[in-house]
Records
---
Amino acid sequence: MKDKIITKASEMFLKLGFKSITMDDIAGEMCISKKTIYKYFCNKEILVEESTAMVHKEVHQIIDSIVAQNYNAIQENFEIRKMFKEMFKSSDTSPIYQLKKHYPEIYEKVISREIDECNKCFRQNIEKGVEQGLYRKDINVDTYIKFYYTLIFSINETTILESEAQKLELEALEYHTRALATEKGIAELEKQLSNSNI
């Protein structure tokens, strides 16, 4: 039952917002009593925290499965972006923006966890791209990782509308890729951009 509550709560939080969804709403949606929810979660903060942890885990499992498909480095980034777009398509406001505004302590935990994971993903992607001749060999990998996650996180933290955040993220991905790319990489980027339904 605990996992079912977390799954339903995550769905509702992402769709309608962390602030606006109450324990009553979740209980009503699941046709259970509020008491049942409180048996597993003594307050809403704990439920929000466990929901964000579950979403984080899901996201990174999907990223791992995309990486396992063995796309080239540039296509891999576009596939990951597509997955995010799909996953958060029903959100009106950016989940990260909402967390920062309404649950700053949970937000801090999520961000420190995400930064570690993103560092790892971005590093693997850049190393793969250099190996494939899509990214330049003469780059400072650490600097580029830092630039990219600073861009992505600042978009999500400051952009209220999820649709606007996704549009900016695509532009950030193009900006990041152009900065790294060789001629071969630019050709692949143009191909991905023309396939990308913006």
---
Amino acid sequence: MSRQRAHWDQENAVLGPGLSEAVQWAGLVIARAEGMHLYDIDGRRIADLMGAAGVNLLGHSDPAYVDAMTEQMRRWMTGAHASTARLEMTRQLRLLLPAHLDRVQLYSGGAEAVEAAIRLAKSATGRFEILSFWQSFHGRTLGTIAHTSGARTGLGPAAPGSISAPYADCAHCPLRRTYPGCGFACLDLTRQILDEQSCGSLAAILAEPVQGRAGNLVPPPGYLEQLRALADERGALLIADESMTGMGRTGTILATDATTARPDIVVLGKGLGNGYPVSAVCAPTSLMHTPPFGAPSASSSSYGGFPLACRAVGVVAHAVRKRNLPERAATAGRRLLDRLRKGLDDVPLVTSVHGVGLAIGIALAATGKPQMRAIVTALVDAGVLVMTGRHTLRLYPPLTATDTDLDDAADRLMAVLAEHRWTS
């Protein structure tokens, strides 16, 4: 038995089964990490294109990040009192975020922040219905699971007021239409769903600008603007869940910055803390102070305002701005996408390569879990770690990754996919 398998067996004797499939399939035991690479206990170097689904924004063990967090740990760690770390965090975020998002409330994880955003929308509108979309992922808490596709099986009814409609997945259109000639027929269907299912109390439309678990699905141009118009038409707010896309990953600070679809509320997470568990709800003052959400303690989080969380956010926000990481993500992402498309064009297993910035998806043909597991483990053996989602390999390298490292990882990945044999 290998050392890594023995290690996993000891952990699994105590841990619950909830780790992600891709992590379990990879079976890695990590000794250290640096930049875009992991080093396991056997000394292998693994190109980390998983990045914990976009969390590894600055790269593993970024020196400035490590120094700042170490210094803060020596100073003060526990409590949500005012601090230099929190003040600097607010200053750095204000330099990044759109002017209308002038209030920020910190939380510990993405699902908690989405829950808070839903409460804020209900408080601000006096309504209770939330529209979300097929294939979405917003978390697994009681409130967010109602808006996470495929997560409710065996758990009883969803939260009251939960409405779901198809997202603009043009490659798998449920209406068998083709963009742009369809004229956004999926949104016509969404309006019909609201007419049939809503009781006239729509508080918000909750959407990912790029659907992560769906395989980094990018909607067609104009779709998010149409969602904005639909929210206005129904007197609802637009919540952009940018947990995965925010802080520069898609080539702009927020994915919605590349559109004119200005959201009322934005959720940030994952890369916001570069590995420290922190998330945020960003909204205008006029919304954030609306009771009951705006009442003292009504929107607080036990660890949200702690100095380590604030220091992490401040360092990340400063790095994103000063190191031009959104521009780097856009440039490196276009280059990587072009390389993968050219290299995988004749590979029968691959049906499409898509994405935006450094959030890329490689869709595979007729691949069940056993075959997907075989592909993931073959990639690990070749020195590459990826995320999965449906029939897609999801790539989230750090925004600081060099072209050389990205090229090497892409070449290894393409070689594995070209050699893999599968049955449909």
---
Amino acid sequence: MYKLYYMPGACSLAIHALLNELKQDVEVIDRSKVVDFDKLDSRGMVPILIDNGQVIREGAAIILYLLEKHKNSMLPESGLEKACFVEWVMFANATMHPAYGRLFFIGKTLADGPVKQQALNAASEAINSLWQAVERQLKNESYLFGAKISVVDMMLAVYAGWGKYFPVDIVMSEKVRNMIAAVNAHPAFIKAIQEETAASA
């Protein structure tokens, strides 16, 4: 059984949902309840996955590890299709995630006032341009890669929920909003939320 260290509402939720989608047993552990979390050389962050005693860090690395290990329809076998999929995993993990991270940084470091709001607005404008890229990839499909959900859709749905914490306008097209709604209604995603809520209680 896998062990997944998480924080409620964090990006670890997408990996939890992926494990459910792959039908893998997982024990989820709330990072805030672990006294010796630093012993995992966690760098202070989640997610952390443990597989047979081996610690795996960094969300994108964990995702690719799981998709390579378990049979699935998400990860193409090779070629340009696989490169495109990995590109979008990296877009979510290394571009969209840090863009939202700037909102959290500004929220914690700047005093309330016009300067802070200006910084938040600039960060949100950058996020809006990234959601436009997602819209272009969606075309007329339900998900980024067609009619079937992928872990990238799950990652983006998690990040989309972070905008509510800030007094900014995050603009998403109807296509993007429909994709996020579909992820939030997906059984593996719902199960992950329920399991994390129970574990954090």
